[in-house]
């Protein structure tokens, strides 16, 4: 028996992506007329019928929440995803987890697939770039959608955004290091020009401006490798730096590793503060000071807000900044 045509069959027949077919089915105005005609013709040619009422029913009652994360290799996001999933499970909802791996095209594809599977809501920590396609799919789906940690850009982005108070966090880190007697403090890591990098750097810049000091900034990948490779450059170009604030804990852990190899006494010669307070901070050598976003509470609050929106039609505030705190350990003590 010939199988019933699917949206994938339509996409193949029309020579477009599945997400484009989804946009046509949802009547999105962003699709070009020529593309719309090609998709409608493909549907007619293969006998595809879109059951809109069934799709709406699935979306309202599926009990599935789509969680799209930009980089699950980073333990910060993994911790959040696990805690968020467990909180949803307590309320009878299941999580469909997708890792976009910082790939905007893959992100759009996964969002489209989750829309087709009728998820009741979305939580997305977006990849950078390709915002228009992801927004078009999300806006057309009209599924409750919250953004966490990062935000999609553009005037069409109206989805609530919740993130830690990055600016306050880097200010706490800078004030802490100067209070510990540091003379020159540098900021390491984070891709230049990215909004999250600028936010995590902003508090540091405020403190240095108030002191009348020139900032020392070495941007780059938010990885252990970058942190490890940067120490030799820092010692060569800025030998007087005696304190560093790292974009995230992965960069900071790389710094600790390089210091061990180069005979730099962390906590004495160089004080180090990370950002995120992942579990590895407690077990590193020495234990790493870090700006904590309190991920257990953050995950719980995010789950409660998306469930309140789905079940009670209580849309979250457009922008929420959650509190952060400095967890002092031996790396800066």
- CATH topology name of the largest domain, in short, is Rossmann fold
Major sheet strand order: 2-1-3-4-5-11
Kindly report the average pLDDT value: 91
Quick one: biggest sheet?
A: 6 strands, parallel
Give the H and E element order.
HHHHEHEHEHEEHEHEHEHEHEHEE
| Total DSSP E strands | 12
Structural shape? elongated
Reported CATH architecture of the largest domain: 3-Layer(aba) Sandwich
Number of helices: 13
**Low-pLDDT regions:** none
CATH H-level homologous superfamily name of the largest domain: Response regulator
Q: Between the first and last Cα atoms, what is the distance in angstroms?
A: 71 Å
Q: Helix/strand-derived class?
A: alpha/beta
The share of residues in extended strands comes to: 15-25%
Helix percentage:
40-55%
- Whole-number tally of structural domains: 3
CATH C-level name of the largest domain: Alpha Beta
The rounded Rg comes to 23 Å
Description:
By secondary structure, this protein is of the alpha/beta class. The N and C termini lie far apart (about 70 Å). It has 13 helices and twelve strands. It folds into three domains: about 1-50, Orthogonal Bundle (434 Repressor (Amino-terminal Domain)), CATH 1.10.260; about 55-160, Rossmann fold; about 165-295 and about 325-330, 3-Layer(aba) Sandwich (Rossmann fold), CATH 3.40.50.2300. Helix 9 (about 195-210) links the parallel strand 6 and strand 7.
């Amino acid at each position: 028996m010939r199988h019933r045509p699917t949206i994938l069959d339509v996409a193949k027949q029309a020579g477009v992506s599945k997400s484009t077919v989804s946009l046509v089915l949802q009547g999105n105005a962003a699709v070009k007329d020529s593309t719309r005609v090609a998709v409608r013709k493909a549907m007619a040619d293969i006998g595809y019928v879109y059951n809109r009422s069934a799709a709406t029913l699935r979306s309202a009652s599926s009990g599935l929440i789509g969680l799209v994360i930009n980089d699950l290799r980073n333990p910060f996001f993994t911790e959040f995803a696990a805690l968020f999933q467990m909180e949803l499970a307590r309320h009878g909802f299941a999580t469909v987890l997708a890792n976009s791996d910082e790939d905007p095209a893959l992100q759009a594809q996964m969002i489209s697939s989750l829309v087709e599977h009728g998820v009741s809501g979305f939580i997305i920590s977006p990849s950078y770039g390709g915002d228009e396609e992801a927004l078009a799919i999300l806006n057309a789906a009209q599924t409750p959608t919250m953004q966490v940690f990062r935000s999609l850009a553009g005037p069409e982005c109206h989805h609530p955004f919740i993130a830690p108070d990055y600016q306050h966090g880097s200010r706490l880190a800078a004030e802490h290091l100067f209070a510990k007697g540091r003379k020159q403090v540098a900021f390491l890591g984070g891709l230049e020009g990215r909004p999250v990098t600028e936010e995590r750097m902003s508090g540091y810049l405020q403190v240095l401006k108030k002191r009348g000091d020139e900032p020392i900034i070495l941007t780059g990948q938010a990885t252990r490798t970058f942190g490890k490779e940067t120490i030799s450059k820092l010692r060569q170009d800025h030998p007087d730096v005696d304190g560093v604030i790292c974009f995230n804990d992965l960069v900071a852990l790389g710094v600790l590793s390089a210091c061990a190899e180069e005979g730099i006494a962390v906590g004495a010669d160089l004080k180090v503060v990370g950002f995120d307070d992942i579990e590895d901070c407690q077990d590193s050598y020495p234990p790493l000071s870090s700006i904590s976003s309190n991920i257990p509470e953050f995950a719980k609050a995010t789950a409660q807000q998306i469930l309140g929106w789905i079940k009670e039609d209580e849309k979250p505030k457009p922008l929420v900044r959650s509190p952060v705190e400095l967890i002092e350990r031996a790396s800066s003590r």
